[in-house]
């Protein structure tokens, strides 16, 4: 993957993600499933102008969903938990 623009899709603004951001200076993102840790690190550093300490990733399986008698499935996705160097921070709620 050459382009760093399409790697980070959106931040995960959940209760757990916000708690990680406040307590541990970590950010949670939904990323492209083909992206590796090095590409995710470069993309976060370039987009938010911060230093990244480490990146942890997890492949999330889509949930089964049902509409009447029809069963379906949500898409699988990849989650990245990015630890920032002390002194650097990004606040998503300030932007809103």
Topology of helices and strands:
Blueprint: E1 8-11, H1 15-24, E2 26-31, H2 37-48, E3 52-60, E4 64-67, E5 70-73, E6 77-84, H3 92-95
Antiparallel strand pairs: 1-2, 2-6, 3-6, 4-5
Low-confidence stretches: none
Global structural class = alpha+beta
Helix share, percent: 25-40%
CATH fold title: Alpha-Beta Plaits
- Approximately how much beta-strand content do the residues carry? 35-45%
The domain count comes to 1
- Total strand segments: 6
- Please report the number of helical segments: 3
* CATH architecture tag: 2-Layer Sandwich
Mean pLDDT: 91
Question: In sequence order, what are the helices and strands, one letter per element?
Answer: EHEHEEEEH
Give me some keywords for this one.
96 residues; alpha+beta; Alpha-Beta Plaits; four-stranded antiparallel sheet; two-stranded antiparallel sheet; 3 helices; globular
